[in-house]
Amino acid sequence: MPVASFQSDVYEAAVLALAEARKPAVILFPHSVDTWGYAPAVAMRGGFGCATDVIDVKYDGGDLVAVRAVYAEKLHMEVDFPERETVVLTVRTNVFKPTEADGSPAVSEFAAPQTQARTEHITYIEPEQTGDVDISQAEYMLSVGRGVGEEENVEQFKELADSLGFTLGCSRPIADNGWLPKSRQVGQSGKTVVKCKVYVAMGISGSVQHMAGMKHVPSIIAINKDAEASIFTIAKYGVVGDMFEIAEELRGHFS
Amino acid sequence: MKILVPVKQISVVDEDFELRADGKDVDPDYLDTEANEWDDYSYEAALEIMEAADGDVEVVPVTVGPDDAEDVLRRCLAKGGDRGIRVWDDDLVDATPAAIAKVLAKVVAKEQPDLVFTGTLSSDRSFAQTGVSLAAELGWPHVAVVTGIDWKPGDPKATLKRELEGGLIEEVSVECPAVLTIQLGINTPRYASLRGVKQAKEKPVQEWSLADLGLTGAELAAGASFRVRRMYKPETGRAELIEGTTAEQAARLAAIINELRGAA
């Protein structure tokens, strides 16, 4: 639970005042829900360059260059920021390795400006606890995505997962449709499957948000009819094919 | 009372593609167009408020895009709303989110809506930048990644749910007028009826150029968020593909699963 609530007006004013005083070349933010809500506004109000969801940063000569993924991760785009003294970058989590040693920055105080926020925190609502399993603790998972097609098709994958001794998970559209409870959703707005050792992804193309919750799993097996699906770039084993036909055949091996 | 809903025609890359001669984007011959998925939800959210208000609220879709982007407006109008707005100029071909936000701010100045609903992001370039940049340009309050809206005409504030990491929800209120960026799953977007699709063809779409909005290409270029140096196909990992008949693939998968389970 966050300790203090996020107010975009207050955060923007504080970062802009600091940028005005210290004239940084780069302002780095994590690419998180809160920064989606204010980093672009800082850039716009400050007249700064801006790139979001950055996966690599480098200098080419004197030019700052940022790399980000586009077109469902199929391509990368390299951008620079001509004539910008300050650049805002929001950086994708878990793409940069943390340094081994701590730095020793000179820490100084800076008084944040007084700002009247035009948003007001009311309350936090915890995700629904359905008394269902806690997928963050599951070691073996079978997850279904959009490829499952219809609600009545979900049950057969639940049965398959059970026969494998795997826990059933899903990607966002399945939970949004109410076909499986939110507590089964893997990904940025669902759960990260921290204990998972084997993850079977069926009919999941692999959005950035889904992969954020499972790409660390050592053994990922992907079954998808689209050979170009992003999920195959992080999977150890892949089958390009129909998830229903594969499931049908798999059943015979685990009954 | 009025809700303005900026929507976008997105590009989807074909399985095999080539880059444009300048190497800065995919050759348009290898791009298909689609409506942005997030915008189905933002438009639905606006229509639901309009219907609950019983005629007190007008919903206006707007897009910044070339001629064929009119499709995404018609797609909206087939579900509801009486008119759309399309802004285009050849200077907008490679426009960055900051430039689009400046254009939309001029549309807002003309239309004077009470609320603006954008999608949280668009799935082709995934900046998640335009809605919040628009709010900043307007000086309006804004809330991003919204999954619930409680507002009716005349309310000075809207009560919202915003989705944080891990499924945590924060309930917040925001002063209106405001810009909200809408997240997937906030509602169940309707499908247009055949009658709606037919009627949408007759609904007016206003077309504005940059000059109509008092903007110039040079001005927008100066305010660009970034400059594209190049695009390229990244080197990525690749799964070991299991070939064969379905039966053979399943047998191999079963063996792999058993081995992984046994080894763990």
UniProtKB/TrEMBL annotation, chain B:
Family affiliation: Belongs to the ETF beta-subunit/FixA family.
Q: Pfam families from the xrefs?
A: ETF (PF01012)
Q: Which domain of life is it from?
A: Bacteria
Keyword Acetylation appears in the UniProt entry: no
Q: Where is the Electron transfer flavoprotein alpha/beta-subunit N-terminal domain?
A: 23-217
What are the TM regions of this chain, as residue ranges? none
Name of this chain's protein: Electron transfer flavoprotein subunit beta
UniProt keyword annotations, A-Z:
Electron transport, Transport
Q: What GO molecular functions are on record for this protein?
A: electron transfer activity
Which InterPro entries does its entry note?
ETF_a/b_N, ETF_b, ETF_beta_N, Rossmann-like_a/b/a_fold
What Gene3D superfamilies would the database entry show?
HUPs
Q: Which organism is it from?
A: Methyloceanibacter superfactus
